[in-house]
Amino acid sequence: MHVDIAIRNGTVVTPATQAVTDLGLRDGRIVQIGGELEADEEFDATGKLVLPGGIDMHVHLTPVEIEGGVVAWVDDFESGSAAAAAGGITTLGNMTFPRPGEGLRAALDRTRASAEAQSITDFVLHPVLLDPSPAVVAEIPGLVADGHSSIKIFMIAGDFDTRGREYLDALHVAGQAGALTLFHCEDGCIISFLCELLIAAGGGGPADYPASRPIYSEAVAAARAIAFARAAEAPIYIVHLSSAEALEVCREAQAKGLPVYVETRPLYVHLTSEPFSEPDGAKYVGNPPLREQADVDALWHGLSAGHVHTFCTDHAPWNLAEKLEPGANVATFKPGVADLQTLLPLLFSRGVLEGRISLQRFVEVTSTNAAKLFGLYPRKGTISVGADADLVIWDPERTRTVRAEDDYSRSDFSLYEGWEVTGWPSHTFRRGELIARDGQVIARPGSGAWMGCTSTGCRLSLAVLQKALIASACSWVRLVSQSAPNAG
Amino acid sequence: MHVDIAIRNGTVVTPATQAVTDLGLRDGRIVQIGGELEADEEFDATGKLVLPGGIDMHVHLTPVEIEGGVVAWVDDFESGSAAAAAGGITTLGNMTFPRPGEGLRAALDRTRASAEAQSITDFVLHPVLLDPSPAVVAEIPGLVADGHSSIKIFMIAGDFDTRGREYLDALHVAGQAGALTLFHCEDGCIISFLCELLIAAGGGGPADYPASRPIYSEAVAAARAIAFARAAEAPIYIVHLSSAEALEVCREAQAKGLPVYVETRPLYVHLTSEPFSEPDGAKYVGNPPLREQADVDALWHGLSAGHVHTFCTDHAPWNLAEKLEPGANVATFKPGVADLQTLLPLLFSRGVLEGRISLQRFVEVTSTNAAKLFGLYPRKGTISVGADADLVIWDPERTRTVRAEDDYSRSDFSLYEGWEVTGWPSHTFRRGELIARDGQVIARPGSGAWMGCTSTGCRLSLAVLQKALIASACSWVRLVSQSAPNAG
Amino acid sequence: MHVDIAIRNGTVVTPATQAVTDLGLRDGRIVQIGGELEADEEFDATGKLVLPGGIDMHVHLTPVEIEGGVVAWVDDFESGSAAAAAGGITTLGNMTFPRPGEGLRAALDRTRASAEAQSITDFVLHPVLLDPSPAVVAEIPGLVADGHSSIKIFMIAGDFDTRGREYLDALHVAGQAGALTLFHCEDGCIISFLCELLIAAGGGGPADYPASRPIYSEAVAAARAIAFARAAEAPIYIVHLSSAEALEVCREAQAKGLPVYVETRPLYVHLTSEPFSEPDGAKYVGNPPLREQADVDALWHGLSAGHVHTFCTDHAPWNLAEKLEPGANVATFKPGVADLQTLLPLLFSRGVLEGRISLQRFVEVTSTNAAKLFGLYPRKGTISVGADADLVIWDPERTRTVRAEDDYSRSDFSLYEGWEVTGWPSHTFRRGELIARDGQVIARPGSGAWMGCTSTGCRLSLAVLQKALIASACSWVRLVSQSAPNAG
Amino acid sequence: MHVDIAIRNGTVVTPATQAVTDLGLRDGRIVQIGGELEADEEFDATGKLVLPGGIDMHVHLTPVEIEGGVVAWVDDFESGSAAAAAGGITTLGNMTFPRPGEGLRAALDRTRASAEAQSITDFVLHPVLLDPSPAVVAEIPGLVADGHSSIKIFMIAGDFDTRGREYLDALHVAGQAGALTLFHCEDGCIISFLCELLIAAGGGGPADYPASRPIYSEAVAAARAIAFARAAEAPIYIVHLSSAEALEVCREAQAKGLPVYVETRPLYVHLTSEPFSEPDGAKYVGNPPLREQADVDALWHGLSAGHVHTFCTDHAPWNLAEKLEPGANVATFKPGVADLQTLLPLLFSRGVLEGRISLQRFVEVTSTNAAKLFGLYPRKGTISVGADADLVIWDPERTRTVRAEDDYSRSDFSLYEGWEVTGWPSHTFRRGELIARDGQVIARPGSGAWMGCTSTGCRLSLAVLQKALIASACSWVRLVSQSAPNAG
Q1: Euclidean distance between CA atoms A20 and C288, whole angstroms
Q2: Which of B365, D28, D319, D363 could in theory staple to D432 by disulfide, Cβ–Cβ 3.0 to 4.6 A?
Q3: What is the 3-state secondary structure (H, E, C) of B385-416?
Q4: How high is the pLDDT of residue B67?
């Protein structure tokens, strides 16, 4: 067969396939695996891995505009997606905040327009539900019909603690519509209480940060989100889980058959809380805080055994001066760091090469599971005929030292500065286009596209996963056999 | 490309790939997915699924010869592998018992010879460790070097309760050699005590069967096997787990990062213990017994969420007269039933179509995971270029009624007699050979082959999985990139 | 010694003492155990038990006046305390609701005055925090200084779901002041959501009652109350716990050293949820609902093993016509029943005589623990020199049939109508006064008194228990040795 | 009343009574509490506590004679009981090992004779079951009939791992007879395996000691003992529990209503494993090893919340030279230390005064619970009319420094040398006789007596506790009301 691109002789790996073979790409898709290929352009992957492009479902590349101000991170879709591409990621999921008074669809449309102008990677948008009033909640089914697959709820933000019942209604509506609801799980009452107490006691500095957002406040919030999910019969996805105790809560829910999915992020598997006591402790602030070694171990075990489903960044980049702003305290520290460009290499180096997780699980938590959960599978998240040619040629032997200055993120520091990391992407393809080579981005901003899960094939995968887990009867296999999921 | 066989337009599914596409088979292997194909022989899979052939790692197709007698099931490799093939299974793992005084290798060689003469499916052999004396244990590393990947330990049989320390030594040796140790987990002391008590009290009939082998005797045996695994730093695989309590023990071990794998079987997800009180209650006897609805639910949840890894038969077929032999009691009932031909259809019908598990998990627990755990992956267990063409064309809409008389097993009854089951294989291919069509076996006995995991590629997958979980460093990726796992 | 009353030759039992001996009472107190006694009045307890008077810390004998109406149960302190006395109870703890706009102290003073006029038993008052505004919360330390030892928070009532942070502040203030905070644990958001859903679906009748207030809504509310307790470093007491799952949450908190105390009540150990499906199902409504047998078993085990601390009624009596009011639904059924007079006999009969709990635990959960937790010990809750002569002569062999018409409660029905119950009080003494004999009350209304825990001795016991559990240093033993707890 | 001894004005405390009052003693018993007393001898306890004498149910004061040698600790009943008396303990439970070929009764009789000649305290004897052959097991019911209440099983010793079924039979016989079975819970297979492995690897020194007997080997042994208890329907008492994980196993069993009692000892609440890495690490060796801080915390929580029932020594004294014997390794270190004289003061100082447990729990775990579990209650373990006058006048303000040279034990070192401890006994009475004053023993060897639980009253308490927990019906209250438990 004649194709646009042939990638030759790589070790092609998904969580359930492994072959030293050739891939044929045409019109942005994978059209042939193995067999005989002629191609316009050839890439030799001998001695390298060929993996599905990374999917990071949790980034902040657009500002939050609220009454009285704007929270603006230092990256936008242009710089952020460049960092992603350089690091082997081909699809992003952006937290999309409505402006005051703005509806969810308006926020999505506005954000999609700006992302389409800037992004190098493909992307989806998670509308953040800041106002669970009936009119806003009523938008959700229409959004799903148009290809959106999620909403995001912050248990600590805004008014969750005063409008819980409305948020529960929203979760119910989202579940009925077929959307997955993302939960930031920390108990707002407890955190605001402890912050006040610590500050009143003369503290409130970085060393107090873990005490201001204790593990039990995460665990109980997770428990409540799960109870809401049981009541609403809706699946939930808990973002950036940080502790063994909260993970245990999720694990027990999964054992009861509840559709509870778990995301963690680099901070919680590569670092522990000791740095908070250093002079620049505020540099490490994230919500939730860094935890202890036992938590780190539990999260690695979860990534390995399957009760943690995705590994995402919560990329929320600042410059160091902003992180270390004098006078800030546990209630006002700027949370988050830049993690996009190093997400995959750090996990590969410390996870796969140091034996904590298998290569299969690496692919699963960085790509396949996210695609399945957010309705993009099998278009994304795998290497399968008909799938988008989102591919990374991965050099498992390449060692580089992490330097913030090498990173496309505009953030001027990295928590991993100076770390030696082995395993980096040599080529990143997005829908068949080479967008980065050896850490250099070569695609133009705006070449990325919004990914709707409007085709039957895409929508099915989410439904299947959810339906399977909530144990309701389904006849989807008949649908599968009648549809052409990879045709569109 | 010109190939021997083309399978056209099926929905090709593995746990991590999904495509409506064509497959090209040559010399018994999958050589091309998608693209352009010419073929000597064509199969149209339109509207059907194409799945990896089933792998049932737990069957009894050879007799147990012990001092003073022989335990002979009614199937041998000829009838058993025919039932397997008719039901969509292409690889079997047979429990291989040494004769008194016979070493493990001798038993394996003898059994391999007879299986090679009879089997329609491919197969591996698990040597059963009945005598953990140093000379026997010392055979294990050599067996692994020759391509065997497992040993089997019965916690209830023979002398586990008097030679525990030696069995622990054997587990250690097996783990060091890279083998996976299968454990039958029930506490022999408790079971023999309770059997005597029940019989002495004038009972001991089928209605007493659950009480004679209580859930806690399974759970505590699983806990002890896991503790042995921690001490020996060796992975274990617990066969035919039956209860929520024992599963919880395993799940907690997995959350600690321990390499504990779990198998369950049809009896424990399709039936509960009520039938033991019926006149023909002995018909349902298996070790362990059927349990309660809460156990059934927990096992389905485990199959769905991932803490149960494989779904196998423990095919141990008898004729009904043997099962109902007058005078038998809880200590002497003949355990086991024929399950091979209906293993996949029943799981598909009640699991996938009724929404308890996804199609992806169906493939994972019936094929992919077993291949990974026993060193056959990616040669077996997936649909990947270079893999053996072990394939099933699956008709998800075909409904049939289970009848023992339609089953290739020589057992004259089925526990599922009369059940309406939807989803059956229409074609079964083993290494590119069509061995069954619409429930009729068309291959000759002896066409199956023993599968050694001697190639680097095969051996790696087991090591990777185990190493990942026991968190030791490994450099396997380099090995992967240097080897050609699919070439041989 | 010459005393007012001698009780001769009974088997005198507390959780940690047991003797066939004589008791000497003078001026309302126990002044001598054993030895030689002359008395003005003699009671022969040969063949009977002599136990500390029962303490029921959870009753509703005063109406709730809210905006737009009054919730008025059919008993007041006169009828309620008579039922208590007839059933062997000598101290009550009444839930005391402020009127709209009324402060806690005003509500307590008002209620105390009316109770002092009516009550036959002694009593304490738990102020219910319906408005956690700073001014109201600021009253708490003063109330504790005056001898109150508790506050009550309803997680389902009023505004817990909109003012959680203020309730957490209140819990903190209460803990700092030395008070114990009672929590009704059910998640208000979930319950209101499910009630609406069930009613909208055309249901909402008694058969839906369990589904409208599911076990997980209790368990997650308990988890959140416990998390609040950790943040506030305050002890909590969870009223009327009903389920195994919620009990497990509490048990795990206790194992972490957290001061979490648990109360259950007759409904949850004597009945299961089946009656809700009967035509008069609404008769059985309580908050939370009756549960399943596994919950009943878990609560009995908790009463026996010590992780359930008290057994109280939540006496909330209605007439049957009110319970069965036509048109009521899951959101409006009248919760609660009359349980005071049968509390102890039913627990003795089904708990002690049927072997579920020991006699020692019977005394502990019906008397001693409540006295310790609410600052009344050792004045109440034991048989010790200097203690109030609150005593019950208990006939362990007396069998009676429960009849609502024999009960001093004005409620016109009993859920236990017709049950044969063995073990009844023959004499009830309150501070040395015989107040009931063979089920007949002989004391005058108003003879009961409010019990403040103002003496050092009383206050200490609460502090000790709490301090021990929250692991802060204390020097109370020195205080004990310097004080004379039983003198005042 | 005229009595032999009056103890005036102490704060008399049991777990359920508390009074500043006088006690009257006559003929070795408590005959009057409060009231008017004339006495031959007076003791002023003003400002002090009066507590039940301590009961340490786990001591080694008689040698173990086995084939090929004798294990002889440095204390016998004379020195051991002197240390006990000086430390406030009035009753001991001694592990009584049969000689090779000797039956249980013969061993008990022989040991009783020597103890009666030497002991200052009262005592019971736990026969150790080293040979569970039918003839030996058949002795058990007769022993119980004669007033013995226990047997001891070592899961690590001798032949548990080869004769498990016989030990299970023994447990069943013991349970049927009404005896409590003590279990030393560690898995012998795992420990011997790890010891060999560590020694073979060139280690095996004190620093390896924790690794040689890991926590999971204790937890799984506890799980198995509990499973045996379920099968045998017999209560068990797990000696010297050391870890959070094993405690969790027990706690879950208790929550299921199983009669599982837990003992811990000073080593596990006062020390952690760090000292094993010091040059004299072998000094700290006990079976099981010292654990980590999380284990210490869990045991304190268990002592406080009630899932640890007793606090005993496992007093097994050596001289330092024996502990530090050159050439010893993890398989041969001499386990155990002298703890009798400091058992109560250390627990009071670090437990009660530092707020970890209440004074009530102190009495419960050091006296009352042991008496109840071993059939001595209410004769022992409380301060009740008719009870033995086993009393300690306890000075809660007295501070002393621990010195081995001040200890009656012949062991020449103390792990607590130099510790400042507050709270010591000033007077110890055993059956009304003053046996120690201010740390000086003043009674003669041989004044102590064996305590049989032959009276109905004593036997009942054990039965009650067990029956309550195993949930079988009982009619004991009738028996109580007909018997005179304190008369005999």
Answers
A1: 61
A2: D28
A3: CCCECCEEEEEEEEEEECCHHHCCCCCCCCCC
A4: 83
pLDDT digits (tens, 9 = 90+) for A327-363: 999 999 999 999 999 999 999 999 999 989 999 999 9
Q: What distance in Å separates residue B463's CA from the closest CA in chain A?
A: 10
Look at B481 and A47 and tell me if their CB atoms are within 8 Å.
yes
Is B224 in Cβ contact with D165 (below 8 Å)? no
- Measure the CA–CA gap between A362 and A14, rounded to whole angstroms: 9
List the one residue out of A287, A271, A338, A270 whose CA is nearest residue A84: A338
CA of C222: which chain A residue's CA is closest?
A: A220
Ordered alpha helix ranges (H), C120-183: 134-137, 140-145, 164-177
Q: Average pLDDT for residues B350-363, to the nearest whole number?
A: 93
Instruction: Give me the amino acid identity at D29.
Output: R
Question: Across the interface, do D231 and B162 touch by the CB < 8 Å criterion?
Answer: no
3-state secondary structure at position C24: strand
Question: What secondary structure letter does DSSP report for C48?
Answer: S
pTM: predicted TM-score of the whole model, two decimal places: 0.95
The residues, any chain, with a CB within 8 Å of residue A302's CB and separated by 6 or more, are: A247, A251, A262, A264, A308, B255
Q: In DSSP terms, which residues pair with C315 in a beta bridge?
A: C59
Which whole number is the average pLDDT over D166-180?
A: 95
Distance CA D150, CA D135 (A): 17
For residue D397, count CB atoms less than 10 angstroms from its CB and return exposed for 0-12, middle for 13-18, buried for 19 or more.
middle
Three-state secondary structure of chain A: CEEEEEEEEEEEEECCEEEEEEEEEECCEEEEEECCCEEEEEEECCCCEEEECEEEEEECCCCEEECCEEECCCCCHHHHHHHHHHCCEEEEEEEECCCCCCCHHHHHHHHHHHHHHHCCCEEEEEEECCCCCHHHHCCHHHHHHCCCCEEEEECCCCCCCCCHHHHHHHHHHHHHHCCEEEEECCCHHHHHHHHHHHHHCCCCCHHHHHHHCCHHHHHHHHHHHHHHHHHHCCCEEECCCCCHHHHHHHHHHHHCCCCEEEEECHHHHHCCCHHHHCCCHHHHCCCCCCCCHHHHHHHHHHHHHCCCCEECCCECCCCHHHHCCCCCCCCCCCCCCCCCCCHHHHHHHHHHCCCCCCHHHHHHHHHHHHHHHCCCCCCCCCCCCCCECCEEEEEEEEEEECCHHHCCCCCCCCCCCCCEEEEEEEEEEECCEEEEECCEECCCCCCCCECCCCCHHHHHHHHHHHHHHHCCCCCHHHHHHHCCCCCC
Do residues B234 and B173 lie in contact, with contact meaning Cβ atoms separated by under 8 Å? no
CB A268 within 8 A of CB A299: yes
Nearest to B210 by CA among B141, B130, B154, B272: B272
Element (H, E) at C190: helix C188-200
DSSP string, C273-298: SGGGGSTTGGGG--SS----HHHHHH
Whether residue C136 contacts residue C163, with contact meaning beta carbons closer than 8 Å, is answered with no
pLDDT tens-digit readout, D46-81: 999 999 999 999 999 999 998 888 999 999 999 999
Cα–Cα distances in Å, from B250 out to A307, B246, B256, C268, D3? 14, 7, 10, 32, 64
On whether the CB atoms of residues C268 and C296 are closer than 8 A, the answer is yes
State pLDDT tens for residues B101-113: 999 999 999 999 9
Q: Is B164 on the interface with D (CB under 8 A)?
A: yes
Task: Select the residue from C230, C243, C256 to test the A interface by mutation, using most A Cβ atoms within 10 A.
Answer: C230
Within an 8 Å CB–CB cutoff, is residue B256 touching chain D? no
Tens digit of each residue's pLDDT (9 = 90 or more) over A154-208: 999 668 999 999 999 999 999 999 899 999 999 999 999 999 999 999 989 999 9
Dist. CA C53–CA C425, nearest whole Å: 10
